[in-house]
Amino acid sequence: MRLVQITDAHLYADINARSRAGVPWLHFQRVLAAAVAERPDIIVLTGDVSQDETAASYTLASDALASLPCPWFWLPGNHDQIDLMRAEHPLLEAVDMQQWRLLLLNTQVAGQPHGELGSERLKALSALLKEDDRPVLIAMHHPPVDVGASWMDAIGLQDREAFWQVLSAYPQVKIVLFGHAHQAYAQHIGLADGGRVDVYGCPAMSDQFMPGAETFTIDEASRPGYRVVDLNGEEWQTWVERVDV
C-alpha cells in the first residue's frame, strides 16, 4: 500500500496569482503530476488547500484531484473554509487501508493560525482507536511537535500534550503525518509504555519555509515536494521527493 502526502497548496481562484516564491497553481499541477507518477494507492492532502478561501479555489483543486487514478482525501488547515471544502468533496474521519487505518484529524481553530483538537475531538479520536486495533496512520494539519522554528512552533497544535496522552493508550498508532510547517521533518516520539510513534512533516506544494528560523522566513532555495509512505504489513518506509517548478 503506497500513500502519498501532499500539503499546503495555498491556491487562489486566479490561476495566475503569485505567492511569495512562485505561482501556486503551477506548483500544484507539477507536484500532483509527480505524485501520480509514484503510482500511489491513496493521496492525502493535509490542509491549506486555499489561500484566498474562495469556492473557485476549492473547485480548481477538486477538479484536478478528481482525475487521479486512485482515491484521494483531504482535511482542513488554518486557511481553509470547511463548508466550501465539503461542498466539493467529503471530509472523512477514517479510511480503511486494508491492513492499516488512516485517521484524518481536523485541528482547525476558526480564524486562528494555531491548531487545537479540544476535548470533543480528542474523545472522538479515542473512540476511533478503541474500535479497531489495526496499525494506524494519523494525518493532520498542525504539527503535534516542535519543528525547531520558533514562530512556527508557536502556531502548532496547542493541546499536543493531551493528543500524546490519548495516543499513549493505543500502541497501534505508528505514524503521524502533518502539514503547516512547509518543510520536511522527521522525529521518533517515545511513549510511556515503551512504544514509539514516527512523526513526519512534508514540503509544501507552494512556498517553502526556512527550517530553524526565529521569525517567518521563506526558504527560496528549496523546491516544492511531497512525501511517499510505503506500508508493508506492520512495517513502513517513507521519504520526501522534490519537484522542479
UniProtKB/TrEMBL annotation:
The record's annotation in InterPro entries points to:
Calcineurin-like_PHP (IPR004843), CNP_phosphodiesterase-III (IPR050884), Metallo-depent_PP-like (IPR029052)
Record has Transmembrane helix as a keyword: no
Q: Which residues form the Calcineurin-like phosphoesterase domain?
A: 1-183
Give a yes or no for keyword Transmembrane helix in this entry. no
Question: Which terms are listed as keywords in the entry?
Answer: Hydrolase, Iron, Metal-binding
Domain of life, source organism: Bacteria
Pfam families for this protein: Metallophos
Give the family from UniProt: Belongs to the cyclic nucleotide phosphodiesterase class-III family.
What protein is this chain from?
A: Metallophosphoesterase
Its ancestry begins with: Bacteria, Pseudomonadati, Pseudomonadota, Gammaproteobacteria, Oceanospirillales
